[in-house]
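Mods, move this if it's the wrong board.
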Amino acid sequence: MLSRTAASPQSQEDQESRVVYIVDDEELVRGALGSLLRSIDLEVRAFATTEEFLAAPRAGGPSCLVLDVRLRGQSGLALQQSLLQLDLPSIPIIFMTGHGDIAMTVKAMKAGAVDFLSKPFRDQDMIDAVTAALDNDAKRLKVRRMLGELRDNWNSLTPREREVVQHVATGLMNKQIAANMGIAEITAKIHRGQAMRKMNSRSVAELVRKMEALGVVQNLT
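Not the wrong board. Structure tokens:
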């Protein structure tokens, strides 16, 4: 059992449960893995088939999938390919198998698997793999949320404010922006200030970085 530390302010990602999905057709394996991962305070949802996993509701926070390669019915590798076509293409997958080979490992890794453990594996190896996968998924979700907030901020700009900041991104001053747009310099300054506030940007450099992250920087020269 991992030791607990004093509570500290938590982000939304920290407050959400970290969920580990397990798909293995052996009940003993599901039970043993579930006990192991719950011992480090993780939420575990175990399934005997890929169909059960696909039909189950998804967690909103960080998650990963511990998946047996060889299953009755659809194989783990086939499920990995299916997920690329569905709503969970980014869930980190840790494969486990008692009959793995190099070709199988290469195929799984090329399709995005984060780890491949051969049975029997050490408990610590599984814990390390799951912890790393959940940390990476938490980072991915954080970036996605940040981009979502940026899109909301950008969508709150008026068409004129967007036009002004596009010129700001090219390095133009208020006077030059006003001349290009055929408006008064004070109007350009007001639009610029409002846009900076809505985008939560304290500098032009910060504003440009956010616009680049959104892919909305245009070449106006």
